[in-house]
Amino acid sequence: MRLVFDPFPLLLISLAGWLNQGQQDVIDYLQEENRVLREQLGGKRLRFNDDQRRRLGVRAKKFGWRMLEELSTIVTPATLLAWHRRLIAKSTTVASARARPPPHLRRDPEAGSSHGQGESGLGLPQNPRSAS
């Protein structure tokens, strides 16, 4: 029995390893860049607007607490995850509030349908002239 060597799996594994190393090099560079920028800031506090907090919070949530602890982030993992909780909850609350009609336009389920009932559906007295 003759053993056949197939170079394709070896080539695929080598390519995947090379790509992974390239991504790791980019991550290492960006982490070092963050450290240098943080050193230049000194003890100054960074100010973020809600949009920046939301963007950082969404991306931080994907990593989770343990991974954020290993990264050198510009704010603490607790802060990042708190931003996610507060800002994402805030945006979903606003979105659900937008979906509901204002109180004065909501129908009273006990009153029944007001379609075709004229003023009586609005809780106003019947117009005596229209009751013929």
From the structure above, extract its key features.
about 130 residues, flat, mainly alpha, single chain
Descriptive account of the structure:
The chain is an all-alpha fold. Among the domains are: 9-45; 47-100, no CATH class. The chain is built from 4 helices and no strands. It has helices at residues 7-41, 50-63, 65-70, 77-99. The radius of gyration is 30 Å and the shape is flat. The termini are far apart.
* Biggest sheet overview: none
Low-confidence residue ranges: none
- Give the averaged pLDDT, no decimals: 76
Percentage beta strand: under 5%
Whole-Å distance between the termini? 103 Å
Number of strands: 0
SSE order, one letter for each helix or strand: HHHH
Number of helical segments with 4 or more residues: 4
Q: Give me the Rg, rounded.
A: 30 Å
Instruction: Give the overall shape.
Output: flat
